[in-house]
Design brief:
- The structure is a single chain.
- This protein is of the alpha+beta class and 307 residues long.
- The protein has a single domain, classed as Cyclophilin, CATH 2.40.100.10.
- It contains 3 helices and 12 strands.
- The strands form 3 sheets. An 8-stranded antiparallel sheet has the order 5-6-8-7-9-4-3-12. A two-stranded parallel ribbon has the order 1-2. A two-stranded antiparallel ribbon has the order 10-11.
- The longest helix is centred in the N-terminal third of the chain and has 48 residues.
- It is globular and about 45 Å long.
- It starts with a helix and ends with a strand.
Length: 307
Amino acid sequence: MGTEKRARQKAGRQQRIEAAQVAQHKAATRSRGMQVVGVVVVVLALVGLGLFLTRDQDPEVATGDNPPTTSADGAAIVDRNGEPVSTAPTAPGEAPAEVPPAGAGASISGETPCPAADGSAERTTTFAQAPPMCIDAAKTYAATFDTNQGTFTVALDAATMPTTVNNFVVLSRYQYYDGSAIFRIAQGIDVFQGGAATTNSASDPGPGYTIDDEGGPFTYVEGDLVMARTEAPNSSGAQYFVATGPGVSGLDAQGTYLKFGKVTEGMDVVKKIASLYVPFPPGSPNAQLGGGPKEPVIINTLTITES
């Protein structure tokens, strides 16, 4: 029965990937069409007026002292200038892929039971309460992210960050992250972000609770696994980010983002995901987030092992 269930889940994820690719192709085609029309109009105007138009090829990067508005589940990560904005070049018509979400799973009211260690619990995405301590901080835990772009593994720091690791392990064993997507790539601070289980967006409602801040202060380096949060204290829930390069050190002075793991295998996959960056269109609701992957990046399964 478990094998059949996994097979159905895998088939559903593949359908979402294909749907996202079709939607992305249509969006790119529409964008290229609009660009062609725009170019024709501009050329005709210039010819008619006999004018020559020149422009700066290096647009100014906006900076600011205040972080942008954040989501309820920790979408706000700001770069060293206070703005998650990148002006990296991108091909005409490219935009971040829109991945149909896996949708809501089951709900748990009252206290949250500790899930089975083998990950056989029903997929659950809404909880009335934060989980109890379900891990043994004396044991070693690792999280394996099996994605459609490859696999990478993170050693979780249960000894130093038991509450944070416990939360991540419990959510993972409830299959909270299975079928979710990487929805954000911020080049200015070298991270990609995921964990929006029901919407694949920064506005995801989260698991229904937040956890208390733990440890710190932190310094951040390439390969770190870190919880996202809002500007408020004790606001981490389920969203996470992975540090893809040295620019993440720009977060050192930005407050307590809970660092609780380190990539030990598959850093090449992490880099591959980061390389899929394209910016969100100016003026779009997600423009403040920087960008996202130009093709779907889906977490097929997030598996926890302990020893």
